[in-house]
Amino acid sequence: NDNGINKFDCPICYEIMEDPASCGQCSNRFCYKCIVQVGREQNSKCPCCRCALRLSNITRDGNLQRQIQSAEATSCNFCGLGRLKLQDLKTHEAICPAINVRCRYSSFGCSWTGPRKDLESHEETCSLHNVRGLVTQLRVQQHMVMQLQQVANNSNQMIELHNQNLARVQSSKSPGHLLHMLELAYVTTCIPARYLADRSTSWAHFERSREAKAMVHNFFTFLPTAILCIRIAANAFDQMLELENAKNGDHLLDLLLDQLLAYAITMLGAVAISCCFVEVQSSYEWHNHDRFRNIFGRPHPVIRDMVAISLLTVYFSVMDLLEGKNAILIWMLCLLSSVFFPAVVLTVVGSSDLNFVSIYHRTPTRIMRAGRAFPVVTFGLRYGFLGNLVGIGSCLDAIILYRLCLHYNILKRDYVLGMDCFLSDLSSLNVWLMLGAARVSVEVGTAKFKNGDLLQNLCLPAIFAVVSLVVLIMEDRAISKLAEFGVTIGKTIHQAGRNALGPRNEPIIGREYNQVGMFVFGIWCATVGAIALAR
Q: What pTM, to 2 d.p., does this model score?
């Protein structure tokens, strides 16, 4: 208009803006109440730029509010009253005597319009004035009907929204589906922008709860071990064909022993996997059983310990079966794919969930506690490798020394305590002192039985015990660093995915693929493939 104040008009209500705010996507401004009301509608968009409107993106514009307050005085377009502040113009128009208004009975047939100053005199002579009681009742009833219609419309919108959410959840991918899990690994690493864009639709099940994220972590942590057990079983089947061609008796005996060991590994792997399916109360923690209260002094997760011991035996036997450099290589591949890759995937999946972040992202390695598979798998990896490398006796010595060092604060009590399963529950110092004394007694008895120098025969076990402790500490640090590195890479991939989203929450063409994630996914595929081809 002539006063140059149209830049302060709200595009929604066409009045002077009250508490100016923006949609967060464009430079247009609206009344805060107006834009919030639009944002509460289903699938709402900005009235000007037509971008998806979210209540969290609406921001108030303090600078524009100060401009309105300090704008030059103007005059009323109806009565000509001058020296009105812009912010007071709307209040004045609500009582301006010169503005045209309608009769209060206009909705019932009165067609009079005129200045507000003549309204009172007209209503006294209006033909509908004599039936004002009936008109008032009709007006109240009309208002009630409108309220009921509004309630019905809101109910219909809620029902429609509920049906849409139900259909979306029913059509979304499930954590219990093998192909969906593998697709999740590809999408979260190679195309993180696509995952973030579809996380409330196709991947709604994975975003819904902590339980679903724990299932993701358990799957990728347990997968290398399951593949290794299947491969060992396939090798045993292949060896059955070699038995027919074996002519040497010693060779035949070796094949039979290897085959029995392979079948034992397969059975123990099947037991570990079966225990995971038997206990379904939770995917992120093991259930405490009251039946063993008398043994441990409190309810204890016995199924967890059964799985941990089974996996320890599996990895110990696998390394004994494969032998040499091949065994160490397979162990390293299992460690990499069981610790590093789950951390990457779970970080990308969980970084959009504020509750999940608040629980697990305070320190990088805490995310590895999201699933219950991590403690038992790492228990088997650590002690299976150590026992095969230095022997069962030296491995037990290392465990005793490790627990004593933790008790006397020689080593830090960091997150790796969660990987010790039932060993962590034996927190009494007397238990470990008694075990240490028993081990010393055994070694002394062995030395006397050999009829040699007692001191010389005890030095070698002591050196092996210290070396075993160093190896165990190195294993723990390797797992810790792999987990931290996986979380760091996962955060990098997640942030790159967010940067590749456009204003309408859709991946920007040409930027949706993540090179770091593709490299990580390729390494994981190569690692799992090498485990599957182990011989």
A: 0.66
